[in-house]
Amino acid sequence: MTPTLTGTKKVVTGNHAVSYGALLARVQVISAYPITPQTQIVELLSEFCATGALRAKFIKVESEHSAMAALIGASSAGARTFTATSAHGLALMHEMLHWAAGARLPIVMANVNRAMGPPWSVWTDQNDSLSQRDTGWMQVYCESNQEVLDTVLQAYKVAEKVLMPAMLVLDAFVLSHTAEPIEIPDQKLVDEYLPPYRPIYKLDVNDPRSFGALAPPDVYMELRYKMHQAMEEALTEWAHADEEFSELFGRRYGSIEPYRADDADLIVVTSGTVTSTAREVIDELRAQGRRVGLLKVRLFRPFPAQLVRAALAGAKKIAVIDRNISFGMGGIFAQEIKSALYNAPERPPIFGFIAGLGGRDITPTVIREIIDYTESHDEPEDLIWVGVKR
Amino acid sequence: MRKPIVFTSEQEMPPMAVSLADMGHNRTGSWRYLRPVYSEKLAPCKNACPLGNDIPRILSLVSEGHYEDAWRLFRETSPLPGVCGRVCYHPCESFCNRKNFDEALSIAAIEWFVADACFDLEDAIPERPHRSERVAVVGSGPAGLACAYFLAKDGYAVTVFEAASQPGGMLRLGIPHYRLPREVLDREIELIARWGVEFRTNTKIGQDIEIETLWEQHDALFIATGAHRSRALNIPGEELALTGLEFLKAVNTGKPPEIGKRVLVIGGGNTAMDCARTALRLGAQPVVVYRRTREEMPAIVEEIEEAEHEGVQFEFLAAPVAIHDLHGKLEVQAIRMRLGEPDTSGRRRPIPIPGSDFILRADTVLTAVGEEPDLSFLAEHLETSEGIVIERAQGLLERAGIFIGGDAQSGPSTVAQAMRSGKEAAQAIKSFLQGQRKPKSLKLEEALRVNFSYFTHKPRVPTPQLPVAERISSFAETKRPISAEQARAEARRCFSCGVCNLCDNCWVFCPDAAITRVNGSYEVNYDFCKGCGICAEECPRNVISLIEEEL
After folding, report:
1. In this predicted structure, what is the pLDDT of residue B385?
2. Beta strands at A266-270 and A299-301: parallel, antiparallel or unpaired
3. What is the helix (H) or strand (E) element at residue B77, kind and residue range?
4. pLDDT in the model for residue A3
5. CA spacing 20 to 30 A to B113: which of A37, A378, B182, B470?
6. Which of A202, A209, A229 to mutate to test the interface with B (most CBs of B within 10 A)?
7. How many Å apart are CA A327 and CA A308, to the nearest integer?
């Protein structure tokens, strides 16, 4: 399992693509607790550590809460840190996620999207990561194994620039356990792209400081303001990071990715692996002469509202596919997009679809049904359940 | 007092809550209401040791392989580590904190090992002020030897008077060779003599020399004549029996009597065990006759177990009523007992069952129902009760410059207790000769709070023993010493209760970085110590105490 060659093609699963990303990023401290479907990520990383391929401290812990706590300590001391988790593990981390963000620590984590129990499930949906929306973590939803690896590198680039933690998200099994050929970037180029992390403040016995102490009301709000400013800055930094990445490695992803959307009357909005399926359907319908397009939302936090407005401005109808549900309201991506458009001059009607929860497949047929439904209805609907047996 | 920084805009602020200056304006030490202080405590083992051997420090030295230093530290408090390592009933181990975690340290085995490893070493005898006062020690058992050693170390001229032909008292006459090889005893007495102690053997007090003479010739006397008089059974035919002590003395001085095959030992104490096991080694089949049950036997359990392993038979709940001579063979008429209510000793009282008489046949009967001091030579100087010097009389003796200790004072006790008594007598004599009161000893708090989280379970080193067949066919030492490797490993099990061994836990855990390492110890910076108590909690060995601050 020890990688000796980089800058080569390799067939790896999404999970291992994450591991290779962390390896190339030369992370210094890893702390994690195993959970399906994430375990392979840290398993391979522990092997890298054991063989010496990766000179990192691997801290074994008794829970995800402790894993994140360990990284908070390590990151505070100036280390580049990494962890991976999923579903209940992420939920258990919740308190520490706030801490990492509030302490402005550029920790990077991979979350493999897995449906929350009960009922027990190991299959994919987005409720675990979206439940952490307001913790101050950046969130990036990936579509392919290559994107997964590349996003690890970009995530460190941006996180260390703006001092906010970043979570890259990949679908359980559809990506995590599915192998694809990917390019493993050359280490030298990665080093050029991602120089060592140099924190402005760190735990240092020779320069002792207290971190995270009590902030009275007269300063708390300013620190929160600065976090939001950092997120705003991150919107630009993701674009820069993507740009610089494409110059070195020849690939770019964008914070959002419109696909055949310029002249589309109907735009389908997706995230994660559903995007790949939707691309196929769009091509097929375009071949039939139907004016349909696609918008992939890759960056969820910070939310690229301006880009989304611009991308959707010309459409007559929008269909948002949510593999998640905010009980009592609806799909979370749909809410975000509606919210982004509300103050915009052009506000196309938005149809919100809930599909594929708990790992149910979102097949081309499902996507065609969604498009057909949207085209055949004039009045937008907030919440349309797709494929529920009733 | 520095003023805190006041921010007027978010641009002046760092991105996160981080201190940009020190807390000079608000030193956290002002929050404290509990003050941590390093105060070493008394390890329970050391507290339990009658001699106060500094066991934690000795074990620390052993764990690092510094056996010579360990031996010298033993000799600070005890002149007989080789003897004690073998025969002491090690109360230190009974109180070892580790017994609440897995098993007590095998301290005696380590003492034995250290003494053996340093067998050829000699004390470095320093130049010391010569004292003109002369002290006579009567009796050269453990009490006399200890008293002589500690007085001689302080420069007093000490002469030890011994009735037997060689010094050692009960160590030589009472303890069988298989428990204490004589070369060990000889060596440690030789080392005491090196301090200038003079031994006059074959000199029995009241017979070869009078107590008054000694008193006239010396500035102080220490009476440590032991408890050599065997208690009587007070039954008809008792004269047909041999006392256990006579028997042991004979065997221990190389003159074993003819005892035949079947030997009855009457009694349940340590002397009885020694008699039975010695008889076994002379080829006999000893039977211990005891009037209560195994539970009530006064002998040390270890001794009983070893006797059992070696094949000694026991006849419990039986008491002799008479001994008859039947054509050269002995016939012991015995009666069955049952246990009644507990008596003053706390043990259940044996009550004869009427009409339950039975006969035990024997070639030899040995009686071992207790010993008492024979202080007839002192009769006019003190009051005794059942042979034991009573407290008031002891005070009278002190004023006259006559001190009494060991078994002669207390009745039969242990080697370590006798040595303690001798050591205390040395101190009392010094005070007497210098016209001072005995210094009050400061009683340290005992270290009882061990943080077990910092230790891993590790079994106690087993004491090697000769196989039973080899044991009972000779007088070779039954227990074997542990190896250097075992001694070091065993010493490493020591928690070092109450004694700082610079483990750094306090230094590591202090959340205020208020503990610093200074010249091989630690200091608390009370300007910043909040008194959270984490150092005291995390100290594995109870060295740090929390004291309430006076407000």
Report:
1. 56
2. unpaired
3. helix B67-77
4. 46
5. B470
6. A209
7. 24
Q: Read off the tokens for A141.
A: 């939803």
- The vertex-B365 CA angle with B243 and B345, nearest 5°, equals 65
- Which amino acid, one-letter code, is at A143? E
**A215 inside 8 A of chain B by CB:** yes
**How far B450 CA sits from the closest chain A CA (Å)?**
26
Q: Tens of pLDDT along B88-141?
A: 999 999 999 999 999 999 999 999 999 999 999 999 999 888 889 999 999 999
What are the tokens at A14?
Answer: 């999404």
CA angle A131, A132, A138 (to 5 degrees): 135
Return mean pLDDT, chain B.
92
Distance CA(B389)–CA(B381), nearest Å, equals 11
Report which residue type is found at B507. Answer: W
Interface test mutation site (partner B, options A76, A162, A207, A223, max chain B beta carbons within 10 A): A223
A–B CB contacts, 8 A cutoff, strictly below: 45
Rg of chain B's alpha carbons, rounded to an integer? 29
Q: What is the ipTM of this complex?
A: 0.88
The reply to whether omega before A37 is within 30° of 0 (cis) is yes
pTM of the complete model: 0.67
Instruction: For an interface test with B, give the residue of A76, A98, A104 to mutate (most B CBs within 10 A).
Output: A104
A141 phi, psi to nearest 5 deg: -100, 125
Rounded CA gap, A338 and A320, in Å? 10
Quote the CA–CA distance of B126 and B71 in Å, as a whole number: 17
Give residue B147's region: left, alpha or beta (phi > 0; psi -120 to 50). Answer: alpha
Looking at B166-205, list the stretches that DSSP marks H as alpha helix, in order from N- to C-terminal side: 170-173, 182-193
Token pair of B246 as six digits: 């006579």
Helix (H, G, I), strand (E, B) or coil at A237: helix
Tell me the backbone φ, ψ of residue B83, rounded to 5 degrees. -70, -50
**Mean pLDDT of the region A183-209:** 94
The C-alpha R_g of chain A, in whole angstroms, comes to 21
Among B13, B18, B20, beta carbon nearest to A222: B13
Q: Residue A68: phi, psi to the nearest 5?
A: -70, -35
Local confidence band at A205 (pLDDT 50, 70, 90 cut-offs):
confident
Query: Which residue from B224, B194, B283 is spatially nearest to B415, judged by alpha carbons?
Result: B224
* A201–B14 CB contact, under 8 Å: yes
What sign results for the dihedral spanned by CA atoms B371, B374, B379, B381?
A: negative
pLDDT reported for residue B395? 57
Q: Evaluate if residue B387 carries a pLDDT over 60.
A: no
Which pLDDT does position B383 carry in this prediction?
58
A309: helix, strand or coil: helix
Residues 6+ apart with CB under 8 A from B238: B232, B323, B367
The verdict on A206 touching B (C-beta cutoff 8 Å) is no
Chain B residues close to A216, C-beta within 8 Å: none
Token pair for B292: 């209560």
Query: Could you tell me whether strands A138-141 and A166-171 are parallel, antiparallel, or unpaired per DSSP bridges?
Result: parallel
Residue B254 DSSP SS3? coil
Gap between the Cα atoms of A141 and A271, Å rounded: 6
Distances (CA, A) of B155 to A28, B195, B430: 67, 9, 11
What number of CA atoms fall less than 13 Å from residue B290's CA on the CB side? 27
The full DSSP string for B310-377 is HT-EEE-SEEEEEEEEETTEEEEEEEEEEEEEE-TTSSEEEEE-TT--EEEEESEEEE-S-EE---GG
What confidence tens digit (pLDDT) does each residue in A228-279 have? 999 999 999 999 999 999 999 999 999 999 999 999 999 999 999 999 999 9
A367 — alpha (psi -120 to 50), left (phi > 0) or beta?
Answer: alpha
What kind and span of H or E run contains B153? helix B142-153
Bridge partners, A171 (sequence order): A113
A230 reaches B (C-beta below 8 A): yes
